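Suppose you are handed a protein chain with no further information: no name, no annotation, nothing but its sequence. What can you learn? This example shows the usual starting point.
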Amino acid sequence: MFGRSRSWVGGGHGKSSRNIHSLDHLKYLYHVLTKNTTVTEQNRNLLVETIRSITEILIWGDQNDSSVFDFFLEKNMFVFFLNILRQKSGRYVCVQLLQTLNILFENISHETSLYYLLSNNYVNSIIVHKFDFSDEEIMAYYISFLKTLSLKLNNHTVHFFYNEHTNDFALYTEAIKFFNHPESMVRIAVRTITLNVYKVSLDNQAMLHYIRDKTAVPYFSNLVWFIGSHVIELDNCVQTDEEHRNRGKLSDLVAEHLDHLHYLNDILIINCEFLNDVLTDHLLNRLFLPLYVYSLENQDKGGERPKISLPVSLYLLSQVFLIIHHAPLVNSLAEVILNGDLSEMYAKTEQDVQRSCAKPSIRCFIKPTETLERSLEMNKHKGKRRVQKRPNYKNVGEEDDDEKGPTEDAQEDAEKTKGIEGGSKGIRTSGESEEIEMVIMERGKLPELAANTSVQEQNTTDEEKSAAATGLESAQWSRPFLDMVYHALDSQDDDYHALFVLCLLYAMSHNKGMDPEKLEQIQLPVPGAAEKTTYNHLLAERLIRIMNNAAQPDGKIRLATLELSCLLLKQQVVTSTGCIIKDVHLACLEGAREESVHLVRHFYKGEEIFLDMFEDEYRSMTMKPMNVEYLMMDASILLPPTGTPLTGIDFVKRLPCGDVEKTRRAIRVFFMLRSLSLQLRGEPETQLPLTREEDLIKTDDVLDLNNSDLIACTVITKDGGMVQRFLAVDIYQMSLVEPDVSRLGWGVVKFAGLLQDMQVTGVEDDSRALNITIHKPASSPHSKPFPILQATFVFSDHIRCIIAKQRLAKGRIQARRMKMQRIAAPAFPFLRPVPPGQQ
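A reasonable first move is to predict its three-dimensional structure. Written in structure tokens, the prediction is:
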């Protein structure tokens, strides 16, 4: 949609000797414009090239000759641009003009030159011009033009765009009208423009009040509805795609939701309190609570209110807590999830909600009564004072609206904001009598139930807190959302809901804006928090139950769910001084670990491939630990767990398929539970990995080769290099060494590789040579091994060649056998062979 600009055509007019980068040439082009004030089919190409050439001269003049801008301003040449636009000269001229203006403003670097271009308000007139936005190319260049202008905003240039006397800000208001444009690149550009505007508004109180009072509520209410509509579409896609046929569309919808959340977070971290208050109120009361949180409860309740499915609700809330860290927002949201009461909500009838939905304090997801464009147009003329209008700026319909008095305006705004508690604490000017105070939900003010709960929590001991957390299941309506969370962890069928719950708990506990006291209400500790002496027993039991289910032969727990369960349990019970887990829970965990031992033993048959899988899985687990942020960006986990690799879903996010994948899963489950058990018992890992880097021979090591069996050879590498080396075979490695000139009988290692990863083959036409390849272990089971050595070894005769081949082959077999014996050794007894009949 955003195409590459066409090449400049310079110097096409006048004499060939004319310098196209000069004031004289600009005067000539001015003369051309004066002779062609009306656009016709015959002169449109001439006008387009003339404007292009003028732009090129202006960019040159910005760097080399200020008199160019003096002439441009003196002759009011921008008027010609505007005049050409107003003649309905066709899409070709519009596209070329917008493209040229965009290039001009992109390349102007001096502020003085920029002031020249922005003076006389012609740029604003172009911004409000009625282009044919149904044309994709016009739309693309227009929004790019606005984006380029927004990047030029600062404390000085902003006054050319925002006029507090006429109470308009065309660059901002025209841009946000395209917030819901079907083309994603347009929406992204709109977000960039608004963020640039908000950053500049921090230092301009009048503009800040304008944005807050005239645009914030219409824009944010429509934006929230737009986001919610996407969420409902996403939920419908999940509900109708059990066969994984629409994963492309689902991925696009998830990516769009992530973009929305990052945009909202970008607004919040600008830290403009006025805007943050309004945005927080709309997000909580018009989106997150009525659509996301209320969907957590029983799906059969709540009448005709829009709802989304439980998995989608948990998934999206996890994204919210992972991305947004604005304290008033995340704490209010967490308060409802942890302590919310729905009794009043269900008592209300649908008519009550419809009647009161205009009040922002009422939590309901409902479409705004007016479009954003209509709301902006109405707000634009409220309270407007009669002043001299901008030159060439169309204020259509202003005369009628000016008759409306400021008292009527204030009453209308008060009705719109009625029902919201508290007040904003943003920057205010003295004597601000005509400004309508935007009242919002007071920071930190929680529902009465939350306040009572908070008081009770302060007066309870750690033991009482633990008992209260354990007894949550009996309180059906006291904490319905929290009840749902624990219930989802207790599913015996699969981990579809459990994975999302674990992600939500993780996201809440790692959110930087969360008040630790909120999480202490359910004894969910924050990483790095002060010392703790107790933990949530109910949650710990649910997590251990997931681990036990994962260790069963027919377990339906995915590896991602198990790893997240281990992570949360460690977060709960491990402190800087030790582990506080109770013996009964540790015993249950040990039972799950023993189950995992039996599960791995079932697949252990002494086969050679088992060793490769064993080491590959350990390497994968240690090199790629769980990243919850990446996990929650994957749309595939929204679909019911599947066991086929044909979907392309990562192995840890789906169920195993076939004996090989079941073996891999059993090995990984064992590793996770073994690691967790050792950490909780405070014991170091002494057996894994089977190959330790510190025990291996490395390049440039100096070895005592006295009494070693060395075979001289010539190594010919794949690129044609040829070197003389001695071949030595160790227990686990083969190495190529050269004599150490400083000490007799010692050698310097030039290459070392594992025997178990080596392949040796003979050379057909040379009985003295061997082809040897050694692969570096792959980082994952799916990636292709990378050869770290691929060479031909040539020996002095065929006897030494045969000896070398036998020694390498025997060494490889022995190295693999020794590792298999280590796996089944008494010191590492989980895979000792089972007598026949007891398997």
